Amino acid sequence: MPPPATLSASSSFTLLSPSPSPKPKFPPFSPKRHSFTINPRHHSLHSVPSSTVRCTVIEKETPEAQRPDTFLRANSSSSSVRARFEKMIREAQDTVCAAIEAADGGATFKEDVWSRPGGGGGISRVLQDGAVWEKAGVNVSVVYGVMPPEAYRAAKGAAAADHKPGPVPFFASGISSVLHPKNPFAPTLHFNYRYFETDAPQDAPGAPRQWWFGGGTDLTPAYIFEEDVKHFHSVQKSACDKFDPTFYPRFKKWCDDYFYIKHRDERRGLGGIFFDDLNDYDQEMLLSFATECANSVVPAYVPIIEKRKDLPFTDQQKAWQQLRRGRYVEFNLVYDRGTTFGLKTGGRIESILVSLPLTARWEYDHKPEEGSEEWKLLDACINPKEWV
To answer: Which of 190, 231, 233, 263 is catalytic?
Structure first.
């Protein structure tokens, strides 16, 4: 996933966008020997014995009554990449939520706005148990401050192997969403787009100064309607082709490889596009590319939902959907980088796990009959196909 986020799943910044809640009794991140205190005036860090103070480096969120115009500091430039990325993800959140509510025909999103004492905040929206949607979450976050080295390694994965030890000044912004329909013929969708910066100079403890983009959109059906999968992948390819003809084949394979459940030897779903740690192109071009991808979510997905949301189904077909949801849970909890990032940064557990479905199922040694529709889906998850 799911990168850093409160939805994460996935991918997550699912994990960076927690919604308001009381502080947990025990902080999720508490180093064995040392914790850090932040001097709010100078933003400096001091290592002190944990017997003196125990606190998370990324502070807990504070509920807010209204959405601010921006989560950036007052002196931030509106023309900066940070500001324009925030504007993009907030507009995408509004667009996707409006489309989801329209498809449901009655249910609405519950919204929580939150801020962080160290900098930034987010908007968490969840729609639950509607006519069409079992659970739909669309979260945005814009957070900055200092993170522990464990969180930086989770955010960067293998690419962080050579960074200097120590706390890492960072900026992270993203939109993360997982949409679980009730009907087993309507597919689950996950998308996540994020922008990340580390601010430490090269000679300071922590990470070198750098930036990168990440994200993707992928489809997880329980049953294959080939025309739906082709439509979905065609929209992803069209978005990629506007910027570089190599993007779709490269990011499609990256998606197939990333959403791989190793202990099952199968993919979570039928893929889409995925990329991470992307900074080897012009920054302006990548900002435009991320915008195009986010704007492609509704046309790629909602037409499929409209065709499938009211189809009749049997109890057996619903049980198969629940089994595939179990695979979704397994991937998010075991492998998703976004989930890992959220847990290591002490995020709110309800927000980190908002990507999980309301219901799922595990049966002992379940094997679909060869040649059945269920078998065809499993075969496509084991052997990724070229859809366009």
So the answer is: 190
